[in-house]
Each structure stands twice: as structure tokens, then as C-alpha cells.
Amino acid sequence: MKLNATVEKVVGPEKKVILADGEEIHYEYLMSTMPLDLFTQRVEGLSSETIQTAQGLKHSSTNVVGIGLKGKPKESLKTMCWMYFPEYNSPYYRVTVFSNYSPNNVPDINQHWSLMTETSESSAKPVNRETLIDDTIRALIEDQLIESADDVISTFHMAFDYGYPTPSVERDSILKAVLPQLEPFGIYSRGRFGAWKYEVSNQDHSLMQGVEWANRVAANVPELTMPFPETANAMWGK
Ligand SMILES: Cc1cc2nc3c(=O)[nH]c(=O)nc-3n(C[C@H](O)[C@H](O)[C@H](O)COP(=O)(O)OP(=O)(O)OC[C@H]3O[C@@H](n4cnc5c(N)ncnc54)[C@H](O)[C@@H]3O)c2cc1C
Questions:
Q1: Residue 138 contacts by C-beta under 8 Å, 6 or more apart in sequence?
Q2: Among 82, 86, 140, 200, which lies 20 to 30 A Cα-Cα from 16?
């Protein structure tokens, strides 16, 4: 097993992965979970038209803000996991009571608690990253999740460029044009941004895409989740 190694290039016709440190790894089958648009740029052997087509895939970004607080959450938040906020007053669409997941998420659970917020961002929904933490705290007070900014003892912000794969109108035709071009090189693109299927891109779905791909390669069992998201979702719902 090799972790924390950047893939620089994949030489498709030679079925060879080249890492950033120059190491070369030969494969028979390769599953990539890199964002498909970026991945195609690293595959030698693909036509420039295919690479160009893949760049049409759209995504949105996510800003994760962590808020460390002194004291304890109010009664109604004590058993809360996450909550959605579609209203205009808040930059975030979701708030998680992070310290409810583990006491180890804060220095001392008897004196501290914490919230995690997620704020989506795209060209259609710009976010002022400079003011995001202040905007978040203001909205948390308005939404009555925290009482006062004086309770905030630490803040954290991380922006994930690839947050959500957008199921745009052209997405399916792009996938139909790009994914088959990888298969002659033994390459299969799967996972949240590998397959770009918003409807099967949660963690559980992404894992199942990997399991099903391995079953396909090893035992010739047809995949379900990636090619037939609606059927997979209908089955998992039962
Ligand atoms: C803010 C946020 C909140 C989420 N909340 C939930 C949730 O509550 N429930 C849920 O089910 N899912 C949630 N998800 C989604 C979940 O994280 C994904 O479904 C899951 O991680 C997808 O797994 P994956 O293996 O397809 O892709 P990833 O986990 O994105 O793995 C892709 C990997 O490729 C690596 N990579 C990229 N480029 C290279 C390169 N050149 N060389 C080597 N490696 C490279 C990346 O470092 C990364 O490790 C959330 C995602 C985000 C961003």
C-alpha cells in the first residue's frame, strides 16, 4: 500500500502510473477517484477532444467553518446531529453539532462544545471568504444556535474546491463520451468526482461503487450503483 503519493501522469497505452517522485507503477486495472476533469488532463493517450469534453463537467465548492465555543450547547441542541438552513440570513446551508459526535472533538467536553457549518460556493453563488467567519457567527446568533459572539473561543475555515458534482444538463452526455475512452487503457473512473453522479456520490454510494467495480473486475459481476443510480437508490431505500 502506498499513501500520500501524488499521481503525476498515467500513460494509458502502457498501463503505467507515474508518481510525483518519479516512481512508476504498472497496472492491469486502474480505478481512479480523482475528479474526472482533472484526471483526463493527466492521462496520456486520450485525444485532446476527450480531455476538452471532460472540462465541461461542473462542480460547486464547499466552505467548512468550525466554531469552538465555551460552555455547553442549549438543551435543544444536546442530541442534535445536523440541521439544514435554507433561509437567506445565513451563509451556511447546514450546521453540525460537531462536539455531539465525540467528546474528543473539543479540549474538555465539560467546558467546551463546537459547531461545524458548510457554505456552498459557485460562480452562481459567490461567497466572501474574507468575512465568512464573521457572517457565520452573526447568522448562528440569529438562528439562535449560540447566544453571543463572546462564547466563541476558536474558529477554523477550509475551502474545498471540489465540494459537490453538479448534475448539469450536459453531464450525462459528457460521461458517455469520456468514460468509454478510458476503458481501453484499463482505467475506470469511480466515486464522487470520478463518476460525477451527484445522485450516487455520498460516502456510502462512493464505497459501493468501489466494491461493485472490484466485483466486476474480479468476478465479472455487473456494476449497479454507477451505471444505474435510480435503481440503486430505489433498492437501498427499501
Ligand atoms: C464538506 C463535505 C461534507 C460531506 N458530508 C458528507 C456526509 O455527511 N455524508 C456522506 O455520506 N458524504 C459526505 N460527503 C461526501 C463524502 O466525503 C464523499 O462521498 C466521499 O469522500 C467520496 O469518496 P471518493 O473516494 O469518491 O472521493 P474522495 O474522498 O474525494 O477521494 C479522492 C481522493 O483522490 C485524491 N487525489 C486527487 N488528486 C490526486 C492525485 N493527483 N494523486 C493522488 N491522489 C489524488 C484526493 O486527495 C482524495 O483523497 C461530504 C463531502 C464534503 C466535501
A1: 149
A2: 200
